Amino acid sequence: MDENFLLQSETAEKLYHEHAAKMPIIDYHCHLIPQQVAEDKHFSSITEVWLGGDHYKWRAMRSNGVPERFCTGKDTTDWEKFEKWAETVPYTFRNPLYHWTHLELKTAFGIDKILNPKTAREIYDEANEKIKNDPSLSARGLMLKYNVETVCTTDDPVDSLEYHIKTRESGFKVKMLPTWRPDKAMAVEVPANFRAYVEKLAEVSGVTISKFQDMLDALQKRHDFFAEQGCKLSDHGIEEFYAEDYTDAEINAIFDKVYAGNELSREEILKFKSCMMIKFAEMDYETSWAQQFHYGAIRDNNTKMFNLLGPDTGFDSIGQFTTAKAMSKFLNKLTMEGKLTKTILYCLNPSDNEVIATMLGNFQDGTIPGKIQFGSGWWFLDQKDGMQKQMNSLSLLGLLSRFVGMLTDSRSFLSYPRHEYFRRIMCNLIATDVENGEIPYEEWDRLCQMVEDISYYNAKNYFQF
Fold first, then answer.
1. Which residues pair with 347 in a beta bridge?
2. 448: pLDDT confidence band, cut at 50, 70 and 90?
3. 3-state DSSP assignment of residue 458
């Protein structure tokens, strides 16, 4: 993993080193904990900053036969967890974790060594010594080290955003903005949970909620508050697109029913979700936000482990949903109403790549370059093969040149090398076409600008940060 890692030609090397590498990072979708940024968290060990909350690594460790107590347990030490990860790393050949692990060690800690059981203690001690004494390894320090310009966290409408405000008022160089993630306002499957959420929404918004319109009024107040705090994006984690026909009377009745604690039918659930997606999209249009849709995951497959550990612990997978018609109907309805804002579509199943790549062209309207975007390879697809397939589909059926590029989608401050990983892959992909004579070398200036745009400028201009 030398300076030309993943760069397979002189053209790729020039595109990366002279253009992509120097661009700042705009991480427009992540799951960083805002409090850690506001308080500039100093980590106790490499285990805390590297393995804590990283379900990618936990999945690999479980697959390698590591007992759960060394992944998420409270009765094991930081060293014991790290040791088990080091034992797993040599078994991750051809998994992106092998590359990410060593990129992170090298770029964050300056440790250019292969992690395995023989080197584990040496690397553990060296990293911990640096964490203890090097201020660039705190939460804020790492963001500065990686040349991060803007990050957008993922925040519920009921969140106070107090840590975003504190971070901004502290004068921190990196801009940390909230992202509106209103999934719980659509989650009517469990009436008691929905009622509890609506009551919390009423409390933070100051709106008394007894009917559906009251809930919309409360959400609008929170949407306005997010906009005041610099929010530029919404994000929606959905299994599939929802585009059922409904009437206002039906939605009012459905709200009354679920708010009273009664179970909804499958049809009622789909109608309510369809309505909420439209309402949220209209709010985003009014504020010129970009809306993001992450769809296609089957979450919490292992009920036993969900009961033990809760969500986001490594028991999710790619789903199969027939959602193209619903996606089209949803986007078309907003277009017909003149209320389709900037939109980014992310699929978790690569079999949907061409579906999305062709859907984009249906709703581009000439007002904004790349107004409807095919989001970067997401979750299980943010690896070399997944990124290449996403970019190839976009290239063949749309405009790769207008792509807003990579994001971390991560809770870890050590995930920024994923931007480097993406940029190297992207530069090599483009350079291969130049080397093969499929893109003229005479267009070198355009190529260089394309690389810089995908790495940085497209996102900066698209989101208006």
1. 295
2. very high
3. helix
